[in-house]
Write a structure and sequence with these properties.
This protein is α/β, with parallel strands linked by helices and 334 residues long. It contains ten helices and 15 strands. Strands 1, 4, 5, 8, 11, 12, 13, 14 and 15 form a nine-stranded mixed beta sheet that branches.
Length: 334
């Protein structure tokens, strides 16, 4: 039977692939136009209103060139560490948990969980990803051209069938329609593309992408549902009648587009303790927008209940006086 031998958690923000001196340009291009910034108080507002509720004196110390460069270097070290952890496991298959931001899944069909069981997917190159959002600087480590990568259709189908038999209904897809209804879809979303561009760079491991609707009401899975999904995912993997080493890798978050260190701390501590009650009680008004991607990590925590979590680094990357940015984290379960 297959064995779930390891879990990996990593952020996937474009800031991870930008020079630190481009962070402020991204804030100007994106944050100041964002009408849905979720503050650390849970209030949703535009940039100007957020600024009035922010301790700008404290944030000023977080956005010096020296501080941002130091955090950029920690991020690159974190990515290198995740890369090392991934290949050290000698995996036969890798389950990827990430969100989709209207890149493939749209409002005409938005399941809470969608398991992909096709033979391959397209990964977008830099020319079609993050256009105009990097301060006109190239993204570090991103290929220019699109490419097709192998996915594990057999394991994907097995996971779907096991979940359904366990009365855990999921959506599924076995091919990506790149021109559905006249609307071009560019392939698997950036949550997964980051793994191929920055993490899985030595050799391709067949994957099972699982898309979680973290962003879009009204059917966002609750944190508890994500944890339970992870638990059931582990059972599905271990019921696969194939001798194989399988890993689970979740990407996303942590808090963004406003850095919320308190929320991140609550989530990470509860993950380390495998405390489903504390994860279930995370403040829901603050679990929207970019913060919603913490759900991917919660699903991973449920899948790796039998393993111990090691947090390699937590890096709160501020980029504006209003406290916008992205908090990065890199962890493993072994």
């Amino acid at each position: 039977m297959a064995e779930l031998v390891a879990g990996i958690g990593t952020s996937h923000s474009p800031m991870l692939s930008m020079a630190s001196d481009a962070w402020a340009a991204r804030a100007g291009a994106n944050d100041q136009r964002n009408q849905g910034l979720v503050g650390t108080d849970g209030i949703v507002s535009n940039y100007e209103d957020l600024l009035t509720r922010t301790d700008v004196g404290r944030i000023a110390k977080e956005i010096t060139p020296e501080k941002m460069l130091e955090r950029h270097e920690r991020n690159q070290a974190g990515i290198a560490w995740v890369h090392e952890q991934l290949y050290a496991q000698k995996l036969d298959a890798l389950v990827l948990i990430g969100d989709d931001q209207h890149e493939y899944l749209r409002d005409d069909n938005m399941p809470g969980f969608c398991v992909y069981w096709g033979d391959e997917v397209k990964v977008k190159g830099q020319g079609t990803e993050y256009t105009g959002s990097t301060g006109n600087q190239p993204l570090i480590g991103y290929a220019i051209e699109d490419r097709m990568v192998p996915t594990h259709a057999v394991l994907g189908r097995h996971i779907i069938e096991h979940l359904v038999e366990a009365e855990f209904d999921v959506g599924c897809s076995n091919h990506l329609d790149y021109d559905k209804g006249g609307r071009s879809r560019g392939g698997v979303g950036h949550a997964f593309g980051f793994v191929y561009h920055r993490i899985m760079t030595e050799g391709l491991i067949p994957t099972v992408p699982i898309m979680v609707n973290t962003y879009y009401p009204p059917n966002q899975p609750t944190p508890k549902r994500c944890y339970d999904f992870g638990r059931m995912l582990r059972r599905a993997i271990e019921a696969w009648p194939v001798k194989a080493r399988v890993g689970v890798l979740a990407t996303g978050g942590l808090s963004h587009f406003v850095v919320d260190e308190e929320l991140d701390g609550m989530a990470l501590d509860a993950m380390k303790d495998k405390d489903i009650d504390r994860l279930s009680s995370l403040p829901r008004p603050r679990m929207n927008s970019g913060n919603s991607e913490i759900r991917n990590w919660i699903a991973l925590t449920g899948a790796t209940e039998h393993l111990s979590m090691e947090l390699h680094d937590y890096v709160p990357c501020y980029r504006s006086p209003a406290g916008t940015g992205c908090a990065m984290a890199f962890a493993r379960w072994s």
